[in-house]
Structures are given as structure tokens and as C-alpha cells.
Design goal:
Elements lengths: L2 H17 E9 L6 E11 L2 H11 L3 E6 L9 E6 L1 H7 L9 H17 L8 H15 L9
Antiparallel strand pairs: 1-2, 2-4, 3-4
Helix pairs in contact: 4-5
Length: about 150
Amino acid sequence: MSKVARRDLGWLEGLIDGEGCLSLYKTKRETIRGFQWYSSVVINNTDRRLLEHAQKIIGGGHLNGPYRNGNPNWKPIYMFRIGPNLQRKWLPRLHLITKEQHRLLLIETLSLLSEHIGRNHGVHDSRLEQIFLEFRKLNRWQRRDDSR
């Protein structure tokens, strides 16, 4: 890996750690047995150029926006979403700090989901459900008691 590539990789890691959201979602589907599972890596920011640079490094993804909030004083927000194929390629290459456990869980999730496609549907649902609960626990706001 060249110096520029290492620099870009470190920059991307910092961006995802600071501004990114790594998640797992599920929806109940009547047409198929069990749940439909979705892994998600999203980076939101008010500076489109920042997200365009991330998209260039990754070599794909979807950049949407601007989205406006109800408050006219707030800047519009742009959303950069990385699909599952790019997640499979990039998540193993990254090393995060605050979202490292999320990253590891998503890598496992993507591996399990690739086995779901077209066959063995539902065979990993119990593990996916455990991972889903771990994500909920990780994303729960921790209440601080500063009086101690």
C-alpha cells in the first residue's frame, strides 16, 4: 500500500469512527420465512466534499442529499451510504477505535448473510438476533452520573 493509500485509509477510519454509523436492521417479511436483515454503514455530514472524498477512496457507494431539517438555521445534511458488497471489501481493512466492536459484528453479520442468499434461509437467525441485540446494547446511550 502506498503512502497516499495509507494516509487515505487512516483518514477514512477517522471519518467513520467520528461521523459514521454502523448498524444492523431487521424487518419481518411475509413472503419469506423469518426476517430480512440489513447491514448499514452511513456517514452524514454537512460538507459534501468530505463525503465525495470518502466515496472516491472507497470506489463506490451512494451519496444523497442535501436533506433539510425543520430548522432554517441548520445547514443541509448529505448522506453517504456504503452497500453490503463494499462493506465486505472495506470493513476487514479498517481498524476503528470507538466503533471497533460494531465493525467486528458487521463483518460476522455479512459473512452469515452471504450464506443466507438463495439457500439455508433462516439457518443463522438465532446468531443474527444475538448480534442485533449486541448492537442495541452498544448503541444505547450511557447515562453518566457526574455527582460521584
